[in-house]
Amino acid sequence: MVLVDDLPILSPDAGDVKWNFLPVENISQVEIIKGASSVLYGSSALNGVINIRTAFPQVEPKTNITGFSSIYMNPNRKELVWWDKPPMIYGTHFLHTRKIKNLDMVIGGNLFKDPGYREHEYDRWGRGNVNLKYFDKKVNGLVYGVNTNIMFQDKSDFLIWQNADSGAYRQNPEGVSELSGFRMKLDPHISYYNNKGGNHSLKTRFFRIRNKFIEATDKDNFSSLYYAEYKYQKKFNNNLNWTIGVSGMYSSITANLYGDHNSSNLAVFSQVDHKIFKKLKISVGMRMEAFKLDDSTTSSKPILRTGLNYQIGKYSYLRASFGQGYRFPSVAEKFTATQVGALNIFPNPDLESETGWNAEIGLKQGIRIGDWKGYVDIAGFWTEYQDMIEFTFGVYAPDSVPYPTFEHVGFKSLNIGEARIRGIEISLNGTGKLLGVQTDILAGYNYLHAVDLSYDYSDTTGVQGSDFLKYRYRHSVKGDIEFTYKKVSFGLTLIYHSFMENIDQVFLDPLAGSMILPGFADYWKENNKGYVVFDNRLSYQFNNHSKLAIITKNIFNKEYMSRPGDIRPPRNITLQLSVNF
């Protein structure tokens, strides 16, 4: 679950996050809440929450302007190059914050142009945001305001390559899908803090998305979302905090792609957080949430969550949590019916909601060795799903068709049954001096064992004999180290993923696979061995007001793939200048 200022930022039609709509130029902090957070943030927040908090003014006005330019370098395989001149990315963003008496004002903007390193793939957008917050003069503790974000975008995504050789960066013409998009959110809010420890908060949102396709007008879609959440929080003198609230959502969708639909959601929730004996914190909560789609399909379930955090030493903390959750399928998952090249996507109006629970136990150990300080965090997690939803390849012919053809072959969202995802996560954070140079280290390792408990070994949709869930990595590592000496900083980032153990078997099939992704089967057998990618950055701080940085992504020009047919970018170099005043 992704939030912006405590409100979900999921699209009303697909239920996904539009990442480039997030106001990255206007972020004060990013809160990551691990474990089940479904009581306060929604029934689908089973595996944690990312909450982005936007900036607010300090005493003095501040302005930041950043401009950058990037260039895609030629890949190692020269036959992939389709351009005469290397593609270049341009972008700029700004942020201005100031106080005007009782008014807090934040204004930001972002311009971006990327012609793409793959043919017929591009992304251009302009985005602007304004946040206003007013502290009432007459009523102490009364605050109200509005946050806005508006974005215009032209883009074309890369879906299917022509072949695995000279055509891996060239898109199948039948898969080209250009669109012109518009997104807008308006968030009025009001809160009241009284002198008895009570806080009333009402947050609302209007979110609108419009996508118009240049050629394929049958894919046009338009959706609107209305959201409101009232929350009351009370702090008692005995270290007890009580939260109670109600939220409601209504969305309206008009789309040639998956028809016209409307949905609604209503939830009530309550959570108690209590600190006992100075070292033990206990949290218990419950949420009742109901969904309705159109005039008939409804779903409602109670959600429970509990957690504890115990300080077992001066710098040692033990935590444990258990939470339930469920996710109602999106309109796009239930009703999308389209074709991309030789790839068919079928609707499934009978798709049911997926339910599950998550348990986690973890230990956070603070470390101090000389000038070095930091922490190590080790956590084990276990998640179980019932009626898990997966995008699954198969033959989906109507009962009236005795002999299916390729028109009936494709992907559909299905409830695959029961699934179990468990694993271990280890993270390290440290800062100190190395040979007199300021050094900051971040590192993390994730082990994942994700299996389909309903797997039938006669099932041929995935890699034969594998019950491992598709498109997941068993081992993942991410590390970052940065050195700062006077005005110069240098950083190095490493990302590692083990090989992908299971994908849809159709991509490896000699006949069907050659029609959808020509050459993929041989490419996969040769290259699916896991990968390591390195990035680096070098910056110079001229003064308190300006900094120049050179950022290199994929230093060694590694060719790697995140999903079938999706080769990631070659080496690219960015020159960035930031000015503050």
Give a description of the structure.
- This protein is mainly beta and 581 residues long.
- It has one domain: Maltoporin, Chain A, CATH 2.40.170.20.
- The chain is 4% helix and 59% strand.
- It has four helices and 32 strands.
- The strands form four sheets. The chain has a 22-stranded antiparallel beta barrel. Strands 2-1-4-3 form a four-stranded mixed sheet, with no helix packed on it. Strands 18-19-23-22 form a four-stranded mixed sheet.
- Strand 28 (531-543) and strand 29 (546-553) form a beta hairpin.
- The longest helix has 8 residues, at 520-527.
- The protein starts with a strand and ends with a strand.
- The model has no long low-confidence stretch (mean pLDDT 92).
Name given to the CATH homologous superfamily = TonB-dependent receptor, beta-barrel domain
Radius of gyration: 25 Å
Low-confidence stretches: none
Number of domains: 1
Number of strands: 32
Distance between the termini: 35 Å
Structural class, by secondary structure, is: mainly beta
Label the CATH architecture: Beta Barrel
Q: How much strand?
A: over 45%
- Share in helix: under 10%
Mean of the pLDDT scores? 92
CATH topology-level fold name: Maltoporin, Chain A
